[in-house]
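User: Second chain of the day. Same drill as before.
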Amino acid sequence: MTDRFRIMLADDHHLFRRGLKALLGGINGLEVIGEAGDGRELLSLLSAQPPDLVILDISMPQLGGFEALREIRKNYPDVKVLILTMHKDSSYFHEAVSAGAVGYLLKEDTDPDLFSAIDNVRQGKMYVSPRLLEELKLDWLQLSSAEGRAIKPAALSPRETEIVKLIAQSKSTKEIADLLSISERTVDHHRANILRKLNFKKPADLIKYALQKGYI
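Assistant: Same format as last time:
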């Protein structure tokens, strides 16, 4: 018998949470095990029963989504986080991914988009809202052109490309090391070389690169 995929919801709109819970409850294999109206309540629920996935809003009282996300990644590294928000600005997406989110969905997206996002997360993949994806690609292409640093495919070795793909899936250094059977120190060394080769200043640039290359 297949284990149920346990989900926790965090959104400050009660009726929205109820509707989302009813929607997910009708899908075989999914189970909503908790609801929170703010980040602090969410962290309290997590301490009692960590789920497989948290569907998290960004704008919440007490403790916002980004702050809660960082706490989750720090204290519950096995719990995946899917952002579900009204914010379509690419800056929110980049901050979410940098903080450890494995997916970014908009509240204007459809039910099938939500189901696809959850399915991707279950398979260890990242998911980006179709309504945001083209904007992100355009944003990266414009940035590359403006800064005169378009990247050639041959710039990275096969191993480095593999690590970029895993970073784009929000895998931690330890997770990457375990998956590739190398040390965490080696992962850090590869990451530094990748940033140097691509002339990037911060890890978030790797997400933009992964989008442009079609790795996400």
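The domain at 151-213 is CATH 1.10.10.10 (Arc Repressor Mutant, subunit A).

User: Great, on to the next one.
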